[in-house]
Design a protein that fits this description.
Strand content: 25-35%
CATH topology of the largest domain: Rossmann fold
Radius of gyration: 18 Å
Number of strands: 15
CATH class of the largest domain: Alpha Beta
CATH architecture of the largest domain: 3-Layer(aba) Sandwich
Length: 270
């Protein structure tokens, strides 16, 4: 189902924060976007400006948190575009933003047990789900994995949400030593997690991680929702540059228009 119409706004930059060596969060003000956005939807930010003529294409980011007329997005410094964005949030007063875009998470289920699994900066769209479920009568469990303890941020927010939190690191510097799938299996074996069929499951992170976790979830006779991250030119389904192959049938979905959230058993991971 298509979500609300989008808006193009010059959103006021309220604040920014350096979360880790390469990850930043930014809070901007737009009553239109904040009131219309649903968990899992995204924004498309115009990176170029009068001083920086390129890159021309906008950059998509998940809406990670909403507070009245303000919302937050989180970004990882991975190239020239995000380097320019980092400079912009520090020096500019506004950002040109298209939002809310895409279809968010299916949150219509009456299942009270929620299982959220994040890999790295995949925590961003899941943060909005944590916020949503914290206002409902839900029992939320969050599994979050990173390469090392230095990659975690904003843990106090999640601890304050009255959820069950499990963390994993590849190098064992904090929490469980291993990846999120290994941690998931371990906690099921230890009886700290229930049968997966009892949960609504949401998985966000790198494609290999989502593919692996989704495969295991299906082996356990359950299913999960995933949020895909892919290069987007328009963010509205016009250019058709963000296609993902349908699993049961011919053709493709467009991540920006049909997603970015899909049930994992409906798509072919790249």
């Amino acid at each position: 189902m298509k979500e609300a119409d989008y808006f193009e706004v010059k959103a006021e930059i309220v604040s920014y924060k350096k979360e880790t060596s390469k990850i930043y969060s930014c809070i901007v003000r737009s009553e239109q976007i904040s009131s219309a956005a649903k968990p899992g939807q995204f924004i498309n930010i115009q990176i170029c400006s009068a001083l920086e003529k390129t890159p021309v294409l906008r950059r998509p980011f998940a809406i990670s948190h909403i507070d009245k007329d303000c919302f937050e997005f989180i970004f990882d410094i991975v190239g020239r575009g995000t380097e320019i964005l980092k400079k912009a949030v520090k020096t500019e007063k506004t950002l040109n933003i298209l939002a809310p875009l895409g279809n968010g998470f299916d949150i219509s289920s009456n299942v009270k047990e929620k299982l959220l699994i994040a890999g790295g900066v995949g925590i961003a769209p899941l943060k909005s789900l944590v916020q949503y479920f914290s206002n409902k009568d839900c029992n939320t469990t969050l599994i979050w994995g990173n390469r090392s303890k230095t990659h975690f941020f904003n843990l106090d927010f999640f601890i304050d949400q009255n959820l069950k939190l499990f963390i994993a690191t590849d190098d064992g510097s904090t929490g469980f030593e291993g990846n999120v799938l290994q941690l998931l299996k371990s906690e099921i074996n230890n009886k700290n997690l229930k049968d997966l069929k009892k949960y609504d499951i949401f998985v966000v992170g790198p494609d290999p991680m989502m593919k692996a976790v989704s495969g295991y979830v299906q082996e356990m006779n359950s299913r999960c929702q995933v949020s895909l991250e892919t290069p987007m030119a328009c963010g509205m389904g016009v250019c058709q540059g963000c296609a993902v192959k349908k699993k049961n049938g011919d053709g493709y979905y467009l991540v920006c228009k049909d997603g970015p959230v899909f049930y994992s058993d409906t798509i072919c991971f790249n």
